[in-house]
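quick q for whoever's on today - can somebody do inverse folding on this one?? i tried earlier but teh output was garbage lol. tokens:
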């Protein structure tokens, strides 16, 4: 049966800016925020996390085409603080099972694609840990999980934004369950993961991708041939599915250089959080200093990213036009199916 997914493209258009680029701000982080709060306090509570995210949304969302929120701390409490046009909502739980050489993703409890669509979300975001060399059971689980989310997004006609992250096994250097870049990662693990999930059966609409090389290799403005090649391979692996870069908490300079390479190879923007706003919380819990830092340092950086995006990123204007203008549109009202 043919599925009409015009709703997906209506939503994608909404999360783009006027130049049809994706300049998206992430405040859905959970463990990274918990850790910052716990450094100053014995523990964190619900209101601590909400207030933390609130400051980011109030100061930075006006500079973003869309904002990424979670349904635990951000929705509905922070919806009225956002000045972004688009709303992306997290589906996956930050807690994951780990067995042997493999991680197992799951939805936030009592949270579904249908609920995201019903409350007005413009895209469903899923972060999935994935390594092509992990245990067979883990690979099967992750593939099935992502495929099921893709089917649900197609059913409810909402874009599926997939974030893929490689990770260290327990016996490898830098092992951690924290949400941070894997040290010494194999660029083939990143690229091969994208190759798998760019297959049509997963129904991914936008990729949120990590750098295929260590961020330390992006500190200098001159890139090695290996780094240039890795970004080119990453682009090819997407099979022309629109893609953006994630920041994974790398330094501001590394992320800026990461975007330069990504845009050279066809990326359409970014979906970033910590690299933009983390430094502003060095004075936590001094809210006056945090606000000052956000409105000066973070705003200046996000404007720098947006200027680069405007000048170098791939516009989705033609992509959207080609998917809105259909030969059978004369019969649209008769052929379009509901849920």
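ok took a stab at it. sequence:
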């Amino acid at each position: 049966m043919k599925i009409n997914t015009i709703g997906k493209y209506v939503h994608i258009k909404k999360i783009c800016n006027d130049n049809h680029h994706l300049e998206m701000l992430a405040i859905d982080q959970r463990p990274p925020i918990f850790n910052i709060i716990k450094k100053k306090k014995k523990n964190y509570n619900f209101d601590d996390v909400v207030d933390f995210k609130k400051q980011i949304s109030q100061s930075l969302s006006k500079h973003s085409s869309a904002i990424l929120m979670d349904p635990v701390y951000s929705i509905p409490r922070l919806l009225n603080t956002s000045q972004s046009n688009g709303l992306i909502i997290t589906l996956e739980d930050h807690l994951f099972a780990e067995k042997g050489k493999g991680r197992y993703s799951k939805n936030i409890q009592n949270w579904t694609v249908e609920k995201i669509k019903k409350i007005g979300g413009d895209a469903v975001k899923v972060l999935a840990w994935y390594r092509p060399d992990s245990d067979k059971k883990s690979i099967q689980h992750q593939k099935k999980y992502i495929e099921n989310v893709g089917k649900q997004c197609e059913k409810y006609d909402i874009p599926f934004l997939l974030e893929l992250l490689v990770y260290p096994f327990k016996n490898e250097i830098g092992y951690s369950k924290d949400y941070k870049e894997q040290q010494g990662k194999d660029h083939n693990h990143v690229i091969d993961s994208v190759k798998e999930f760019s297959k049509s059966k997963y129904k991914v609409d936008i990729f949120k991708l990590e750098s295929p090389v260590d961020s330390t290799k992006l500190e200098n403005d001159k890139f090695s041939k290996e780094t240039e090649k890795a970004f080119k391979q990453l682009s090819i692996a997407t099979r022309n599915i629109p893609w953006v870069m994630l920041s994974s908490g790398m330094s501001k300079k590394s992320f800026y250089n990461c975007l330069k390479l990504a845009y050279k190879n066809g990326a359409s923007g970014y979906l970033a959080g910590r690299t933009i706003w983390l430094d502003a919380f060095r004075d936590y819990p001094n809210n006056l200093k945090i606000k000052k830092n956000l409105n000066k340092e973070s705003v200046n950086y996000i404007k720098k990213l947006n200027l680069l995006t405007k000048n170098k990123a791939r516009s989705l204007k033609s992509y959207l036009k080609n998917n809105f203008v259909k030969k059978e549109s004369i019969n649209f009202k008769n052929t379009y199916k509901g849920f």
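fwiw The longest strand covers residues 123-129. also The chain has one domain: 17-327. so keep that in mind when u check it
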